[in-house]
Write a structure and sequence with these properties.
The complex is a heterotrimer of chains A (369), B (308) and C (247). Chain A contains 15 helices and two strands. Chain A has helices at residues 9-29, 32-57, 65-84, 100-104, 120-144, 149-169, 171-174, 194-220, 222-232, 234-238, 244-270, 280-293, 298-318, 320-336, 341-362; strands spanning 185-186, 189-190. Chain A has a two-stranded antiparallel ribbon. Chain C has a single domain (8-245), classed as Rossmann fold, CATH 3.40.50.300. Classes of the chains: A mainly alpha (369), B mainly alpha (308), C alpha/beta (247). Chain C: It comes from Paracoccus onchidii.
């Protein structure tokens, strides 16, 4: 069999179930506040999907995905902030018409690099291009020199650290430690009421499925198999005539772009963007979303992001102490006991049962399909 | 940025900042030494390294309190007792961690990284539960207070000198241990060829455990020294982990001298820049330069060329 | 020296690792359709020579010219596309992929990022993969994961991955190492078939096998060329006897 259809049957069923949960079950079962919260969790799923591609398939572990998430989020936040900072709305400032935090920091004119973010079209392009370009520079420098594995992880972590310090330090241009807050409208459409948040939830969900399908297409192409081959025997791939670095750069850029889309959707749904979402700690937590879901499973990544974030909200509200212990234990457990995460557990325990359960009635007469 | 300072003032500033940099250097060296053993020799990424250091700091805090309460006469000497106990506490915890966790993950370096990150979260929360979220400080013994006036403009704090001497002393001890002792030979044999080392009769598991334990113990001593110049909180260790890894990688992971040289250059650069720029920009620029250089020369500054 | 009769010209090639000269002023010339075997004691620098030719290690000095192109300045994948294929000493296959997929990755099409994303398995690909799989005795294993293959089968698979590239210069590092006698015989047969239309460089210790396939033999010792010529010639060379039997 050499001709393969795009989706196997079990993948199609998996996608359908996920769609049912996200498009029907959540909106029906959750109140507006919770639905918005789950929308926030799902915006992290973009990062986790990107990590499955980079780390699970390609063996490239980035501990700096928060930076890309943040780049997307900040691009969106800059646009929204400019829209919220009309001269009328900011009349009490000493320089009306610029974001409030700039005014507080004695900046009297909009910096040049902020100006293009007056345009929504530019912002949308920037959400993809800025993180991709940044990822390209990092990837080009590192993968061309054969830096990989642990070294790559450490350098990306350092980049996350640098990004946070820079954002916090440059208050006047970035909003500093508070981030960019008080975002109101998107092209005149108020994003704050519950109704708007529900709409954004669905937009987010649709984009997420778009990402999933793109990721599946990449994994199913020969590109995906080359990635796996690289993880197994990088030299063999190289001496089969592939420029290994360009493959790694590409997948790293794809992961960065996905993270950035998630970041932009995060900003829209939560209404702010801050450096606390960019740094070392959130970046490594994004890895755990992916690991809990199963580092090789694209759909697992979505479940992982949902589950860990839900647990975080639940536990850190009622037992803040317990949460850090729990999260720490989760890191250790997912590495030592369940290296393939939820997807691995599903494959090992649930799938065989499902099969057994399906086979028993299979002997009975079946309705025509 | 140099305008407004006279030449002697500028000289004094650079000297003072240079000295402040030397204290930072000592902290880097102390933290990086343990990591150079664990990461450089064993190739294990220990993200909880900062927490092992903080454990040493808390032990020092407890010992100083105990001396103040029960043996005030000997208070001046508490630090030396604390140092030994800090080494033992962190070292012991390190050996337990190696046994329970690390040894199962030697072939999966990226997973070690995640697991030790989990460990660091657990340790942080443990510290918070035991010692509270607020930072604690120790009382510095009388003989370590004050400073030596060198010229009218330049004064050097004694605790700074002490920490520096300590850092150099421990570096020398680690060097002797790694390169001049039978144990060091075993460690290097195991890390270079595990199977062969086992075949010639070295107990590789025990060597791994000892190496990891000693690396963590050295971090504990670093923590003890750390209390002399700063206060200790549950997350103080995490603040240093990125810098420390960069120091070790920048120096060329397997080279002890490289680690010291890179700790020196990074700390000096950061400290001198700090005077002229804001602290955060000094750090950003230093880290950016280091990351930039690592991108151009990933093997670090002092690595050897080898056939792969 | 530009000699159109040679497909590969190696001149004054040297490489040193921290002062240790692994290859030291080595020169040799390969004709099209020649099968050259490099022999020599352990540590003579044989594998390093292959590493240098395929770009895995960068030369300190000297030149490697393949069909008029200077390989020392090219990237590994560019060298492959110029027509040089390399098999490693320990079998190196993609354990998580099937035999079919292993061969497919080496199929000489869709090697760029874009090419790999848009690659389609058409009839040509399928036919060629089946043909090669038959040649390397793995026709019945196409859908198996490579991880389940025996050591010898992995060696064959790697040879197959090379074969599907159809290189003009094929370099094989100890292709029969670790094989059973039966497998060895089959491999000799396989190699004899596939080396016909191309130049081949083989590193091998098994002298019977060497005598079987070699057009010419180069003996290396301590990074230098010790002797070169027909099998009979080098076996009679007193310097060679000295290196192998002396000390």
């Amino acid at each position: 069999m050499t001709k393969t259809s795009f989706l196997t049957r079990s993948e199609a069923v998996g996608l359908a179930i996920l769609a049912l949960i996200i498009f029907v079950a959540f909106p029906v079962m959750l109140d507006d506040f919770r639905l918005n919260l789950f929308g926030k969790y799902l915006s992290y799923a973009f990062v986790a999907i990107g990590l499955v591609l980079c780390w699970g398939a390609g063996g490239i572990l980035s501990l700096g995905q928060g930076v890309f998430f943040g780049l997307g989020g900040y691009c969106m936040a800059m646009f929204l902030k400019l829209e919220a900072s009309t001269p009328e709305a900011t009349a009490i400032q000493s320089t009306p018409g610029i974001p409030d935090f700039m005014d507080w920091n004695q900046i009297s004119a909009l910096p040049i690099w902020w100006q293009p973010f007056n345009s929504f079209a530019f912002t949308l392009i920037a959400i993809f291009v800025v993180p991709a370009a940044f990822a390209f520079v990092i990837g080009y420098a590192m993968f061309r020199r054969r830096v990989s594995g642990v070294y790559f992880a450490i350098i990306t972590q350092a980049i996350a650290a640098i990004a946070t310090i820079l954002i916090v330090g440059q208050q006047g241009y970035t909003g500093g430690v508070n981030g960019i807050t008080d975002l109101r409208t998107l092209m005149g459409w108020d994003i704050r009421p519950d109704g708007a948040k529900t709409v954004l939830y669905f937009v987010n969900a649709i984009l997420l499925f778009g990402c999933l399908v793109v990721a599946m297409a990449i994994r199913k192409s020969k590109f995906g198999r080359v990635l796996v081959a690289m993880r197994d025997a990088e030299d063999r791939v190289r001496f089969s005539g592939y420029d290994v670095a360009s493959f790694k750069i590409f997948i790293f850029c794809v992961g960065a772009m996905m993270a950035a889309v998630g970041g932009a959707m995060f900003t829209l749904q939560v209404g702010f963007m801050s450096p606390t979402i960019v740094g070392i700690v959130p970046s490594i937590e994004m890895v755990i979303f992916c690991a809990v879901g199963g580092r090789h499973s694209l759909m697992g990544a979505v479940y992982g992001a949902l589950l860990v974030n839900w647990a975080k909200t639940t536990f850190s509200e009622s037992f803040p102490e317990l949460w850090l212990f729990g999260l720490g234990a989760l890191f250790i457990a997912v590495v030592m006991a369940f290296p393939n995460g939820l997807a691995g557990l599903f494959d090992d325990y649930i799938k065989p049962r499902l099969r057994g359960w399906r086979q028993t009635p299979a002997t009975a007469p079946q309705p025509a399909e | 940025m140099f305008s407004g300072y006279s030449l002697p003032e500028l000289g004094a500033i650079i000297t003072m900042q240079g000295f402040a940099g030397l204290i930072l250097f000592s902290v880097f060296v102390l933290m990086a030494l343990g990591l150079a053993i664990i990461f450089g020799q064993m190739g294990v990424i220990n993200m909880a390294h900062g927490e092992f250091m903080i454990l040493g700091a808390y032990v020092t805090y407890l010992v100083s309190n105990a001396f103040a309460a029960y043996m005030p006469a000997l208070f001046g000497a508490y630090f030396f007792v604390a140092m030994v106990l800090a080494f033992c506490a962190s070292g012991l915890l390190g050996m337990i961690v190696e046994w329970a966790m690390i040894r199962h993950l030697y072939k999966r370096p990226l997973d070690t990284l995640l697991a030790t990150w989990g460990l660091s979260l657990i340790l942080q929360q443990t510290f918070r539960s035991l010692f509270g979220a607020r930072e604690v400080g120790v009382t510095i013994p009388q003989w370590m207070m004050g400073s030596l006036p060198v010229t009218d403009l330049i004064e050097i704090p004694i605790n700074g000198i002490f920490v520096m001497v300590l850092a150099l002393g421990i570096s020398a001890a680690v060097y002797v241990m790694m390169y001049r002792s039978a144990w060091g030979r075993q460690v290097r044999a195991v890390t270079q060829n595990r199977v062969m080392a086992g075949a010639v009769g070295i107990d590789t598991e025990r060597t791994d455990r000892m190496t990891f334990g000693i690396g963590c113990g050295v971090a504990g001593v670093a923590g003890a020294a750390f209390t002399m110049i700063g206060s200790t909180g549950p997350t103080s260790g995490q603040a240093y982990i990125v810098d420390t890894f960069l120091v070790v990688v920048f120096g060329g992971a397997a080279s002890l001298l490289g680690t010291i040289a890179s700790a020196f250059s990074i700390s000096q650069a950061q400290s001198i820049l700090e005077f002229f720029l804001s602290g955060s920009m000094a750090k950003v620029i230093t880290l950016l330069v280091v990351v930039g250089i690592l991108m151009l020369r990933p093997q670090g500054l002092f690595a050897m060329k080898l056939r792969k | 020296m530009e000699n159109p009769n040679f497909i590969l010209t190696v001149e004054d090639l040297s490489v040193s690792f921290d002062g240790f000269k692994a290859v030291d002023g080595l020169s040799f010339y390969i004709e099209p359709n020649e099968c050259r075997v490099i022999i020599g004691p352990n540590g003579a620098g044989k594998t390093t020579v292959l590493d240098l030719i395929c770009g895995r290690t960068r030369a300190t000095a000297g030149s490697i010219e393949f069909k008029g192109a200077e390989l020392t300045r090219m990237r590994e994948d560019q060298i492959v596309h110029a027509g040089v294929g390399r098999k490693f000493q320990t079998p190196s296959v993609y354990e998580d992929l099937t035999v079919f997929e292993n061969l497919e990755i080496s199929y000489p099409r869709g090697h760029t990022v874009f090419g790999a994303l848009t690659f389609r398995r058409d009839g040509d690909v399928d036919a060629r993969i089946r043909e090669v799989a038959e040649t390397i005795f793995l026709g019945d294993f196409l859908q198996e994961r490579a991880a389940i293959l025996s050591h010898g089968q992995k060696q064959w698979l790697e040879i197959g991955m090379l074969l599907i590239q159809d290189p003009q210069l094929m370099m094989l590092d100890e292709p029969v190492a670790g094989m059973s006698v039966a497998e060895r015989k089959k491999t000799a047969e396989l190699l004899n078939r596939i080396i016909r239309d191309r130049a081949v460089i083989v590193i091998e210790h098994d002298m019977g096998f060497v005598a079987d396939i070699a057009t010419r033999v180069t003996v290396m010792h301590q990074g230098k060329r010790l002797s070169e010529g027909s099998m009979a010639h080098v076996q009679a060379d007193p310097k060679v006897v000295e290196v192998y039997l002396g000390h």
